[in-house]
Structure formats: structure tokens, C-alpha cells
Amino acid sequence: MFRAAVRLSVSGARSLTRPQLGLTAPLAQRCYAHGGKLESDEEFDARWVTYFNKADIDAWELRKGMNTLIGYDLVPEPKILEAALRACRRLNDLASAIRILEAVKDKSGPHKKIYPYLIQELRPTLDELGISTPEELGMD
Amino acid sequence: MLHLTTGRVGCLLSKQAVVALTSSGARMSSHGHHEVSDSVDMSQPMYWDRLDTPLPDRPWKDVLDSTDKSLKQKEKGPWTALSKEEKIALYRLKFNHTYPEMKRPSHEWKTVIGGMFIFFGITGLVVFWQCHYVYPPQPHTFGEEWQAKQIQRMLDMRINPIEGFSAQWDYKNKQWK
Fold this sequence. Notes:
The complex is a heterodimer of chains A (140) and B (177). Chain A is mainly alpha-helical and 140 residues long. Chain A contains seven helices and two strands. Chain A has a two-stranded antiparallel ribbon with strand order 1-2. In chain A, a hairpin with an 8-residue loop joins strand 1 (28-30) and strand 2. The longest helix of chain A has 16 residues, at 114-129. Mean pLDDT of chain A is 83; it is low at 10-28. Chain B is mainly α and 177 residues long. Chain B has a two-stranded antiparallel ribbon. Chain A: Keywords: Acetylation, Heme, Iron, Membrane, Metal-binding, Mitochondrion, Mitochondrion inner membrane, Phosphoprotein, Transit peptide, Ubl conjugation.
């Protein structure tokens, strides 16, 4: 859903002007790079959630996954971030969890409403795992 | 020999990493891997602060003393038991700069603009010296009197009388239109 609203590249400029958080048009997200069929937003999300939900994920996979995800032209959905934060918990890595929150805030760029929305959606997970946001720790 | 060649940091990424490493070397955080003073061992995983790479290849501080180790042990338990200071300490063990610190504005532009103006000034001095010492004297045809006579002659010859030079001169009242 966020991909529709917050496409950060120039071609999506028309949807950037109004950050409507309720947009649900499932745009085809991934392109035909290998000649296959288009992947929908839901499939993309599901793929990433599965990636981070791997029970024995290791630190390298977490770093690789996170760095790749941040490299995309989108802000990840809360459910992907939740899976990533839980992966941090399995790896006993609080610092990376906070770093992930900082990274998605930076990823939202000029759209100031995205990050508070993400935190609101992630609040149960943050409370459950005991992750403080960078704002709570005074790191901003 | 390898260290000599690795000293030549060509790409921006390694330059940033070297900056991160050398700036940290000035402070007391301990990195066991490399010699900050001369060159960086590029065959080891490196740390860098980049906005688009939130989790670099290695933690910032990987030579942990006993307080750090005990904090790391505590990290294995529930994070709700950690105080704010401990959480901040854990973050600072793993990362050097926070995102706002990475994005802080630098004062480099003042150096750039200042340097530009200095070069303009030096160029101006060079040009001035050149005007004074290098250029030959002006041709005599540039003098005031000569120019006045020249214009009068052009008007007498009716140069461009329709749209151009003489068209601007009012012959009856002997002045420019």
C-alpha cells in the first residue's frame, strides 16, 4: 500500500503530493527484469516477511536483507519491519533494531507522516520486545 | 607491499570508511583490526556510516572490554530490563554515528566559496599587473580628440543614414536624437 503513496522516484511524482495513507491500489511493483510475470505488492511483502521470519536467521542475512530492503525505492510495510525487529530479537541485537527504525525514518524523506504511522503500527511489537525508538532515547 | 597499495583509497566508499576509521582513531574507542595511522586492511569487513546501508559489515567497536561484555550478556535477556543509558550504550557499541549525526550539515561550502573568491582575487591581481606592465600603449586613435573627429567625419559621410549611425543624429539641431 505504501508503494502506491510514497513512490520516491520522479515518475511517481503525482502521487507524492498528497500523502494519502489510505491508498490501497495494488500496483504491480517489481518489473520484468527477467521476463517473468509482475509481482504484486502483497507478494513482495510476503516474500520479505518470510525472509525475516526464518527461525535460524543469522546476522549476515539480517544485514543483507535490511541493506537490500533499504536500497529499494519504497518504505517497507510495518509487517516487514515487525519481522525484521523480531529477527533482531532472535539475534540479541537491540542496536540493529534501533538502527532499522532510524533507517526507515530516513527512507520516508520529506513525507513526515509515514514514520509516526509506522511507529503506531509497530507499537505493540516495540513494547513487547522492549525496543525504544530513537526519539525515546534522545538520538535525534 | 599489500599495505602500500591499500593505502591508495580510490573509491568514495573506502574513502568514507577511512574517514570513519581515522576520525574514530583519534578518540578512545578501540578497534583491534587495523592500524589507523597508515593504512586500512581492506580484506577485513569494514565499518561505514551510510544512510543507504543501515547495517554495515562489522560493528563499530569490536574489541570489547569487560563492561561491554557484561552489557552484551544482558542484551541476551529481555530488552525491557535495559535502561535507556544501557540501550544507548549498546547502540554506540555497534554504530558510530546516528542518522541525524550522519546527516549533520558541514561547513564545507564556506571553504569552497571562500576558495573561489581567493582565486578570483589572485586572478584579478594578475590581470591588473598585466594591464600595467604587459600591454603595449593604446593606439593613438583611441584618444578623445581623435574619436571626436572620427565621429564628425562619419556623420559628414552619412554613415548608415537610414537605420544606423547617421540616422541617430539630428542634422538640423546638430545633436543626437
